[in-house]
Structure formats: C-alpha cells, structure tokens
C-alpha cells in the first residue's frame, strides 16, 4: 500500500479505542477483533493513538505491538491506515514516527505539537522541520487541538509547509468555535485536507472539508457513513438533517452520563459509548489516572440508546 496524498485523504476514518484487561495490560486479541469490525463496517480507513486511543498512557513496546497489529490487519484488507505518533517531545515523536514509517502499510502519521509549554513560532517551525528531516517520505497529518496551547490556522500552515512539505492534512478539532478560521484555512491552503468532528461534518464539507476522524463510527457505523455519503454527493438537506440529529444525540448523551457523575471527556466518553452501543468489544476501563464509566452506567445507557436513539445501537444488540 502506498503513502497517502492530500487528495486521497478523505472520508470517514475510524479511531479504534485501546483495550485494557483487568490488570490494565494491552488486550491484543480484543483490540484486533475491534479493528476487524471497523474494517467490515466499510470505513475509508483506520487511525490510531489520538485522544481516543489514549496515546499519553501507552508505553513504547505497546505502541510497537499496536502498530504491528494494525499494519497486519489493514494490510491484509487493503485498508488505508494512519498511525498517531503523538508525544510531548520532538525526540519521542520521531522515535514513534520512525517505527511507523518502517511499515509499508502505514499511509500517514498523525502528530500533535508538544504541549507542556506553548511553542514559539521558531520552536513550532523547528519541530516540523525536524520531523521532515527524520522521515521526509512519511506524510503528516496535524492533530490541531487547543490542548497543545497553540491552535494553528492558515498562516501557520503556510509557514510550516515551507519546512515540512510532507504535511498533507489537518484534524481540525473544535471547529464549531473556530468555524470562520476553518473556512479561511481551507481557502488559503487548498493543498491540505481538512477533517472535522462528526457533529459539523456536513456543514464543513460545504466549505471544502473532506471527512472526519470518527469516534461515533463505533456506535452503529451506518449512520456516520450514510451522512458522509449524502454530503459527498451534495445531498445537503438530508445530510444536514442527519448532522442535526447527531448533534442532538451527542448533547443528550453527555447530559445522560453527567447526571450520573461520569466524565464526558474523551476517551472516557468515546470508549464508554462504543461499549454501550455494542459495537466495540472489551471493557470501558481507561488507564489511570482516567476513570471509565461504571458498569451500571453502561447498562443504563444501553437501555436509553435502544429507547431514544436506536440508530446509534450496533446491529443485533
């Protein structure tokens, strides 16, 4: 499988959550089964180790094993693959990047900027330059999220492309509060592929966004895939109606679990919802210090989903 280009970077990409056993060890077998479920669902591709994939609690040997599993299964299915190479330091990022780049099945790497202290312009450009120097042939997708203390837009990307021409895309989070900047960025950097969250997918695709890195795909995948297909074929009215329904669902689901004093931040929300919907196998636990939803909340949520939002329940559950 070839490396990805910006033009090929589109569609719905499934983020598969990490699976921990009762001793918080990597449950490789269940993780592999979940990958196969997403492949069978017909997603465009798979990506790993963002927030949903708990990159911040994974040891290097676990990362390597996770990459091996993804590469084997996606390679066998001829399914595009992106590996999240996220960390808090340049050397750590490069170490992850080099391992991923050694796999022919990996089409691109998704990276964040180091986040403990806010980077200056000089530091930001040097970071991207160092990644390009280390792996010039590995396409990069920037995980653009305010948690890194710098949220990037078109002027930043224009400068970055001068030192890292292997940048092909942007996971543009919190698009709802940066919608004007998203439009400007798409217009000013048409050679980059922009991705947004599912709850703004149709609206952003009208501006030129090309898809979503999806966690909600792990409910009933057919919903998000259908919404994308409608938007891609410019059936905007139907796509927007589905987008509204999805946004309503997300708000109601967050309220439902918040009333039970549960956390709504990812990956707790993403993993808990996927388990409650019956799509992903394994337990909803997250590695400490983060705490997944209780078994009772999962059971209550499953009943609520079936009654109020059956379109987000995995078939046969």
Architecture overview:
By secondary structure, this protein is of the alpha/beta class. The protein has a single domain, classed as Aldolase class I (TIM Barrel). It contains 11 helices and 8 strands. β5 (140-144), α5 and β6 (167-172) form a beta-alpha-beta unit. α3 (90-101) runs parallel beside α4 and α8 (221-232) packs antiparallel against α9 (236-258).
For the secondary structure, the number of strands is 8
Secondary-structure-based class equals alpha/beta
Shape: globular
* Unreliably modeled segments: none
Query: Strands across the major sheet, in which order?
Result: 7-6-5-4-3-2-1-8
In the CATH hierarchy, what is the superfamily? Aldolase class I
What order do the helices and strands follow? EHEHEHEHEHEHEHEHHHH
**CATH structural class:** Alpha Beta
Q: What is the helix content?
A: 40-55%
Topology at a glance:
Blueprint: E1 11-15, H1 28-41, E2 45-47, H2 60-77, E3 81-84, H3 90-101, E4 108-111, H4 121-134, E5 140-144, H5 154-163, E6 167-172, H6 179-188, E7 193-195, H7 201-207, E8 211-214, H8 221-232, H9 236-258, H10 268-277, H11 295-308
Features:
317 residues; 11% strand; eight-stranded parallel beta sheet; alpha/beta; TIM Barrel; 8 strands
In short:
This protein has a single domain, classed as Aldolase class I (TIM Barrel, Alpha-Beta Barrel). It has eleven helices and eight strands. The chain has helices at 28-41, 60-77, 90-101, 121-134, 154-163, 179-188, 201-207, 221-232, 236-258, 268-277, 295-308, and strands at 11-15, 45-47, 81-84, 108-111, 140-144, 167-172, 193-195, 211-214.
């Amino acid at each position: 499988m070839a490396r990805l280009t910006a033009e090929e970077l589109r569609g719905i990409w499934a983020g598969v959550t990490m699976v921990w056993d009762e001793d918080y060890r990597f449950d490789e077998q269940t993780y592999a089964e979940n990958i196969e479920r997403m492949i069978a669902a017909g997603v465009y591709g798979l990506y790993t180790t963002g927030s949903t994939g708990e990159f911040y609690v994974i040891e290097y040997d676990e990362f390597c094993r996770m990459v091996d599993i993804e590469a084997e299964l996606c390679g066998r299915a001829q399914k595009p693959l992106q590996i999240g190479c996220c960390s808090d330091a340049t050397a750590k990022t490069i170490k992850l990047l080099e391992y991923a780049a050694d796999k022919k099945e990996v089409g691109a790497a998704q990276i964040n900027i180091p986040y403990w202290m806010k980077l200056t312009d000089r530091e930001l450009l040097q970071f991207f330059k160092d990644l390009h120097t280390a792996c010039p042939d590995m396409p990069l997708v920037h995980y653009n999220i305010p948690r890194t203390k710098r949220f990037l837009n078109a002027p930043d990307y224009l400068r970055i492309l001068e030192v890292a021409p292997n940048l092909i895309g942007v996971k543009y989070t919190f698009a709802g509060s940066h919608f004007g900047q998203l439009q400007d960025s798409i217009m000013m950097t048409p050679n980059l592929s922009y991705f947004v969250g599912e709850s703004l997918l149709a609206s952003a695709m009208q501006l030129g966004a090309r898809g979503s890195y999806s966690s909600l795909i792990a409910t009933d995948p057919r919903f998000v895939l259908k919404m994308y297909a409608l938007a891609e074929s410019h059936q905007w009215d139907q796509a927007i109606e589905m987008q509204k329904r999805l946004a309503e669902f997300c708000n109601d689901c967050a309220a439902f679990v918040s009333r039970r004093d549960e956390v709504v931040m990812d990956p707790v929300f993403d993993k808990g919802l996927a388990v409650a919907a019956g799509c992903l196998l394994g337990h909803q636990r997250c590695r400490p210090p983060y705490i997944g939803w209780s078994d009772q909340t999962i059971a209550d949520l499953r009943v609520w989903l079936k009654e109020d939002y059956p379109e987000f329940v995995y078939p046969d559950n």
